[in-house]
Amino acid sequence: MFNRVINWLFGCRHRELSRVFTTVGKSGFTKQHRVVCTRCGTEYEYDLTHMRRGKKLGRAVRSGNNARV
Q: Which value, to the nearest 10 degrees, does the dihedral of the CA atoms of residues 26, 69, 20, 11 take?
């Protein structure tokens, strides 16, 4: 509980988001639109109809020397 309050006060606000990414499933029909917070790497669903982010999907997988997770 205490950690949630601290994260709410001082944590990432997810205001710097990437462009919209569209992923297609193996069948070729399953599409998912998502955006990623460029500061902390948290992924969100993105609703193209209402042009806003949806539910939290988790952390993005980063590779390379400049990973900030």
A: 130
Q: Indicate the pTM of the whole model.
A: 0.64
Using one digit for the tens of pLDDT, what is the confidence trace for 7-41? 678 778 778 899 998 888 777 777 889 999 888 88
How far is it, in rounded angstroms, from Cα 44 to Cα 67? Answer: 19
What CA–CA distance (Å, rounded) separates 41 from 37? 5
Q: Could you tell me the residue ranges of all domains in the chain?
A: 2-59
Strand 52-59 to strand 31-36: parallel, antiparallel, or no bridges (unpaired)?
Answer: unpaired
Q: What are residue 24's DSSP bridge partners?
A: 31
**27: phi then psi, degrees, rounded to nearest 5:** -75, -15
Residue found by looking up tokens 């949806």 in the block: 54
**pLDDT value, residue 69:** 44
